[in-house]
Amino acid sequence: MRALLLVCLSAGCLAQRPQPCTSPSLMTGSLSVSTQNEKLGAFAKYTYDALGQRIRLREFGSYDNKTFHLDVLLLYRKGVMYKISYRNHTCYKKRLNRDFHPLAIPKDASLVGQVVLGSSSGPGQGVLVNTWTGQLQMRNKTAKYMSTVTEFGCVPVTTLFHTTRAGWMVTSFFNNVIGLSDPQQLIPPSFCKDAELEKEEGEDPATFYSLF
Description:
mainly beta, 50% strand, globular
């Protein structure tokens, strides 16, 4: 009887161990991003659709000591990116040479630990989160990451991402809402209808697109 109880308790402990997870397929919220070399620092509002592989980012920040404002719609299935200006009613269409990566913890990630952000002294005073680490193979190079997500819902909190080219990049998510608060954000505006595909020139300041 004691042996059976021990086995049951052990199984219960294993079942409670955090497991790699996938974030909600539809989310709306805000994020901030900065790089170790201080080349990029930005804030953005995002609309995320993993089902249709679409992302909308409206951001402002500085890149290489120059300020920028961007409103972009990334359509991964079509392989195009729209840069939109409602003020001037202009739209630029560029090729999107990146694969879509859903917000998720890879299955081979290693658990760093589980903590409570805030306080565990009373209900509603803290959030239980898990931190994971690992490596990703990206176009002939290896990137390191450390991601923190909520235990319940797998909602992203922070992600540290390292490449040889950019060093460490820190992305913090906040004001996350499950679902699409405005689905129209994922549809190109009418004045983008006749936009022609342009050649990409120079480096895109919003290099954190690859995090998605």
